[in-house]
Amino acid sequence: MLRLREDDAFLANHDALLATAPHDDLRLLSIVIPAEALAGFAAPAPGEVRPVVAASALLAPAVAFAEQAAVTDSHPVSGFGNYYFERLLQEMVLGVAVEGTRAPRVGMTADVYRDAMSTIIAQRSDPHLSPRGIADQLKISLRQLQRAFRARDMTVERAIRRARVEHALELLVDRTYDGLSIAQVGQYSGFSGGSSLARAMSQEGKESPSAIRRAAQA
Predict the structure, then answer these.
(1) What is the residue-wise DSSP string for 14-72?
(2) What is the pLDDT of residue 10?
(3) In this predicted structure, what is the pLDDT of residue 13?
(4) Domain parsing of the chain, residue ranges
(5) Domain covering 111-218 in this structure, CATH number
(6) 3-state DSSP call for residue 114?
(7) Phi-psi bin for 206: left (phi > 0), alpha (psi -120 to 50), beta?
(8) How far is CA 208 from CA 3, 86, 92, 167, 187, in A?
(9) What's the rounded Cα separation, in Å, for the pair 16 and 106?
(10) pTM greater than 0.70
(11) What pLDDT is recorded for position 149?
(12) Residues of 52-74 as b/e, b for ≥16 C-beta within 10 angstroms?
């Protein structure tokens, strides 16, 4: 049984609606997102309840946005707008998950690779994301960060590139974004444009952006 105090927040991995005690004064905001949205982040194990640090600067904005989303009529919004509305909410929840649970739990050490991957996935669309910036956010040295990735036969630069390519692939195969040019897909994924996107996809062993889009449309 989980006892909640006022303004408590937590992450939980569950596949059923959350049961709550029938108190008249209970006000519970529940945000349900698919598990894939936490890909790359150490999501709670099945049945695990993980508290979110109340001091997280992202918690209050995420709650306010979710409350607004709950009362907004989705019909006047285009399919394109609805997708971004949902995507933004997922990104905010992911930000809360990363920022609000980053402090190591009692008896556990920080997982540099996990936290770095969480940061990369949350900020992959930022063209200025860099290994140095990630290290600064995690409050570790660049050498520590690089060592954590070398232990997995990976570099920070490649992890950033791969995360951006995966995001670009999502946009290329989703028919909602057929109106975006290849250059725009590249820019929305953190690249400078279509050429750098195509080059990164080739380095990751993928087909060209135009070929992937044609296959999706067919």
Answers:
(1) -SSPPP----TT---------GGGGTTS-PPPBT-EEE--TT-TTHHHHHHHHHHHHHS
(2) 78
(3) 73
(4) 1-103, 111-218
(5) 1.10.10.60
(6) helix
(7) beta
(8) 52, 28, 31, 14, 16
(9) 29
(10) no
(11) 96
(12) beeebebbeebbebeeeeeeeee
Give ∠ CA 104-62-123 in degrees, rounded to 5: 65
Question: Which ranges of the chain have pLDDT less than 70?
Answer: 1-4, 14-26, 34-47, 54-55, 72-83, 98-110
Query: In the numeric block, which tokens belong to residue 168?
Result: 């670009």
Instruction: Give the C-alpha separation, 211 to 192, whole Å.
Output: 20
Report the C-alpha gap between 103 and 215 in whole angstroms.
44
| pLDDT computed for residue 106 by the predictor | 38
Report yes or no: 138 and 116 within 8 Å, Cβ to Cβ.
Answer: yes
* DSSP-assigned letter for residue 175: G
